[in-house]
Every structure is written in C-alpha cells, then in structure tokens.
Design brief:
Length: 261
C-alpha cells in the first residue's frame, strides 16, 4: 500500500462488554469497506507502547540531561509515527485503508482517548446492553465464570466508557442492544452517516443485522427483557449483581424490572 493511500487510513473500534452486540456490529461492518480480524486484541500492544515511550521520557537514563536524544524526545510526535507504522502494518495485512478492530475487553475502552489522539482517523462505536440481560447471556455463553466475575466485567467496561467518552470530543457513536435488535434501519443509517458509508454499504450492513441478528435463535424475541425478580439466580447472586452492577446501571438509566427506569 502506497504512502498516499496510508494517509487516508481510517481505524474503527467497536467497543463494549462481551455479549452486547459488538460481534453483530463488527460482522456487519465487514460487509462494507472495513476489514479486520474477527477479534483484534492488539490494543494492549499499543497500550504498552504508549506507556513505554512516556515512561522513558519521564524517567529514562539521560532524560534530564540537555543534549541527549531522550531529553529532546517529542513524545507525541514519536507516538504518532509509531501509530503510523501500526496502521501501515494492518493496511498491508488487509490490503485496505479502512481498518476494523473489535476487542470486547476493557483495554481498548480505557485506551480510547489515546487512540483518538494518535490514530490518523479514528472512529469509535460503543455497544451497551442492560445489565440483567447481559449478565444472563454471559452466564450461558461462559459458564466457567461465576456471576460475580461477569458483573465486574460488565460494570467496569461501562463505567470506563462513561468516563472516556467525555474525552473523545464527540467522536463516537453509541447505542443500546435493544435498538440494535429492534430498529436495524435506524442503526444502519446512523453507522453509515458516522463512517461515511455509501448507500450500498448501508444496505449490506442492515441486511446482515436482519439476517444474523445478535444471539438469534428460532422463535426468540430479542426485544423482550428479563426482570430481576424472575431470573433463575440465587439470592446471593442477585445481591452480588445489585451491589456490583446497580450503581453503573443507574447511571445508564437501566431498571431492574423494566428495561429503562
């Protein structure tokens, strides 16, 4: 890929807790110009790179000695060049200037402000999902983990997003899982507008959502939600859920017996 093409690189991050619709968005976007791995898990490399440059600038041997290269180091300039190299690597891997990353962990959420600073053209799509429905889905998908662990993952991801979104200068699109499964046309239009997709790409994106709905199962109505009073959890599990997820859920406007309070 040429340097001219590289300058046009756009990197889209699909963010959110597991079982929140991130796979549906990622796979829908793969029907468009955007290309990436099924799951990236590359953000920790970028995180380590940023930490290393900043640490050595502040504490490295010779950092306080005038005339040394480390003393004169322009941290943000170097990081931008390193990000350019990272983008070049992925652009060459996928033969595309439109890159897509879905890593359903907290790492890229926490890193979003730096990603927003150092990528050439970053974009962020955040998927949230009501706590009760999400935790129940996690327990079915990942039965090797207990409800306490699932609750912590949900709460920490969403709490982190509520913090970092304020640092992105409006450069993000966010929506709820309920909207993803109940109004695919609106979601597709919003994503298309945000990512400058053409009409054909928007249609392809919506077709995927309609045909491959998240967690789709024959006869299942994904717009129906669970009530805390009716889920098959022990009293101890419900107490753990309320203590861990309740405060963040309140900030997001989620109810315990209704979808939204």
């Amino acid at each position: 890929m040429s340097d001219t093409e590289l300058k046009k690189t756009t990197t889209v991050y699909v963010l959110g807790s597991t079982r929140s619709g991130t796979s549906a968005i990622r796979n829908g976007l793969s029907q468009t110009r955007y290309m990436g791995y099924g799951e990236g898990h590359l953000a920790p490399i970028l995180q380590d790179m940023i930490k290393a440059v900043r640490y050595h600038k502040a504490h490295g041997v010779g950092a306080s000695v005038e005339g040394n290269g480390l003393y004169k180091l322009k941290t943000n300039v170097l990081l931008r060049y390193l990000f350019d190299g990272y983008e070049r690597y992925l652009a060459n891997e996928f033969k595309s200037a439109n890159l897509l990353d879905k890593t359903p962990t907290i790492a890229p959420i926490l890193l979003a402000p730096d990603l927003n600073t150092f990528h050439q053209r970053p974009k962020f799509v955040y998927c949230s999902r009501r706590h009760i429905d999400n935790i129940q889905s996690k327990m079915k998908k990942f039965p090797d983990r207990n409800i306490h662990q699932h609750c912590i993952e949900w709460a920490e991801c969403n709490k982190a997003w509520l913090t970092v979104r304020e640092q992105l200068n409006g450069n993000f699109l966010e929506f709820d899982f309920f909207d993803l499964v109940s109004d695919t046309k609106s979601i597709s239009t919003q994503v298309g507008n945000y990512l400058d997709l053409d009409e054909e790409e928007v249609v392809s994106f919506q077709v995927y959502l309609d045909q491959k709905r998240p967690e789709a199962a024959t006869g299942r109505d994904l717009t129906k939600f669970l009530k805390l009073s009716s889920v098959d959890w022990t009293d101890s599990e419900k107490e753990s859920f309320v203590n861990i997820c309740g405060p963040v859920g309140d900030r997001l406007g989620y109810g315990m017996e209704e979808y939204f309070d």
